[in-house]
Amino acid sequence: MSIDVREYLKPHKMLTLEERLGLVKRRFADESHITVDQDAFRADEQKAVLFMCPAKVFELNEDDGSCIVNYEDCLECGTCQVARRYTTWNNPQGGYGVTYHYG
Amino acid sequence: MAWKTIADMSDEKFEVVIVGAGPAGAVAALALAREGVEVLVLERGDFPGAKNLFGGILYTSVVNELLPEFWETAPVERHIVNRRWMALDEDTQIGLDLKSAKFDVPPYNNTFTALRSKWDRWFAEQAEEAGAMIICETNVEELIVEDGKVIGLRTGRRDGDVYADVVILAEGANALLAERAGFRPLMAPRNRVNAVKEVIALPPEIIEDRFHLEGNQGMALEYFGGAVKGTVGSGFIYTNHDSLSVGVGCLIEEFLRLNMAPYDMLDWFKAHPMIAPLLRGGETVEYATKMIPEDSYDSLSDLYEDGLLLIGDCAGLVNPSIHHEGTNLAMASGVAAAETVLAARKAGDFSKARLAEYRARLEDSWVMKDLKRYRDTVHFLLDNRELIDEYPDLAIRLIRRYFTIDDTPKDDVLKELWKMIRSEVNFLKMARQMWRARKTML
User: Is the interface score ipTM higher than 0.90?
Assistant: First the structure.
């Protein structure tokens, strides 16, 4: 098989986070494995979990200032809980969650 | 190979139960199974490696002792013959380049690129062939402790309590069981890195051409300073067979300080003019993230309890210096744990006092010697930021100016350089920092 080298001179296509998350195989559990103490989240001026999560699992509910947890997007690093102890992270049920193809 | 996924384990008793089938857990299982020990490994992923990640370099001294010439059959990607460590500012790079034909012959400097979903799976199969039982899709929810002694595990399965003479925790960087049982200090923004990585597909011929490689040769490039906005962290590119592992890892405290998302740091790195050309034509095929433990030697827990041993990332066994070693420490700890358990089994004693032999074995080995040597690296960098932002930046400007051709007489160029140094550097402070850096980082 011969390669067309010109194909590989084009700039690398940067993907949005959503596109990147779409590349990861996941099996969704029915229940969230992440909980948030909403009072503590409201009191967190930095709202650290909103940017600290590499999968953007946490979203601000503009209406009431609470934290929405899109646990289906979770890539299971556990960083949220280390950054802010008002999140509680448990392993998803066995067999659920992320399966990396490359890793 | 079909992994056992359904088993009625109710009230099962094993000699050893290991939590996690990553490199640490699989090595311990392999070493124990070879000696005829009845060992069960519980893994929460669909298969060993399904949820595992690292930057991309596997250090294989321990593997080669257990499975000589593993590279003939194991799914490693490339052996590293060329390493580069580079500092960037916004448009320039300087660095150290090490390439050697000595690394091109077995055992290949014990340094290979790998993809964990493939490697861990293969490695766990070797443990299984040696007689270890591996059950996947099984989440361990808590340790069963009786009179201060760990006697088993509660799994997420129905009637899923499992008992053992000794439990080995190899649960990884997100050390939930160890932390919640009080067997390790709290994970914190200062002792955990968040790393994000993309696997970027490229044909082998393009990789070999672009990185000046032949056959299975590989390259490891690490970037500091402006590559990661002057944070305690780094960016990396590692060549796999037909893909690149490209990522950044920074202390969580650093992301919090900058109010910055890990994927934004990754995009910043990928778009850098020194990096982007290396990624041309590549297609992102996976995005992944993990934490990396950077617990200092001084804050490690005992790593052994009554009926329990901690190995690998959950024990905090990562060299946080420029060496960035992790998998080899994990596997060495797995071997030390297995040898300790074999001795304990002979004595019929799995008490904390008996299992202290594990820590003694680690202390006698390069594992703890290295962790001791680099016990202050992370804190030293956080307290002496000049070493990761101002000094590399100044070095880049000095070297660039020295080699800039604009018909300035070299005498005048040298005067300019001295002026830059004098105006930007506090010599006494730098001398002190360099002295301490020599002791804490080299």
Answer: yes
